[in-house]
Amino acid sequence: MKKPPPPELLIVDDERSVLNALARVVHRHFGPALEVASTTLPDQALRWAAERPFAVVVSDLRMPAHDGLRLLTEIAALQPHAVLLLLTGSADFAAAQRAVNQVGVFRYLTKPWDDEELVAHLRAALQHHDVLHERARQADAWARSHGHLSPQDAERHRLESMEPGITRVEWGPLGEVLMPPLDDTPGGNGRASR
Fold it and tell me: Any idea of the CA torsion for 74, 77, 81, 87, to the nearest 10 degrees?
């Protein structure tokens, strides 16, 4: 059995300098154990979230084109097991509370951040993702053992556990399979370069 790919982190912030600083911290502390995708465009983040699974998503709260709470809500609808983190200015405490209570944000981080605290929050988020993933796997196993899944659903769950996202297919209006768009990022994989 081939080794599963490393978990993937999505970072969304309208300031490129913030994205670069966050990516540097992540690369320095996690290395190849955590893939990073980053974008200044919330619409791009939503497209990626529709195409591939993310273990953790970090979004800025205040972005001109798209509110961070709304973005995290939309990503959570696409990926209910993704762990959500909100990046806020220190004056946005009320919005951060709302994010935790209404959107299900795991934690909120303040700007400017302390690198060690940021890494600790990311490690906790990754552990929480593993717990959620394991619970879902156990629930699927229980359902299969009690005859609650059709053979097709059982096979779909088995394939998803081996290759997350493999069973997600977009269909066109005439029944054709739609291929995902090619990325317009350098390297073609939509991931931040190292």
Answer: 20
Cβ neighbors of 113 (< 8 A, separation 6 or more) are: 87
Tokens representing 175 are: 């029944």
How far from 84 is each of 28, 65, 106, 140, 174, CA to CA, in Å? 21, 19, 6, 23, 36
Q: Tell me the per-residue pLDDT of 74-119, one tens digit each, with 9 for 90 and over.
A: 999 899 889 999 888 766 667 666 666 666 788 888 888 999 999 9
- CA neighbor of 23 nearest in space, from 33, 15, 40, 11: 11
Average pLDDT of the chain is 81
Domains of the chain as residue ranges with CATH? 8-178 (3.40.50.2300)
Give the helix, strand, coil percentages of the chain, each rounded to 5: 50, 15, 35
Position 146: which residue type?
H
Which pTM does this prediction carry?
A: 0.69
Please identify which residue in the block is written with the tokens 């980053």: 38
Of the CA atoms within 13 Å of residue 159, those in its CB half-sphere come to 10
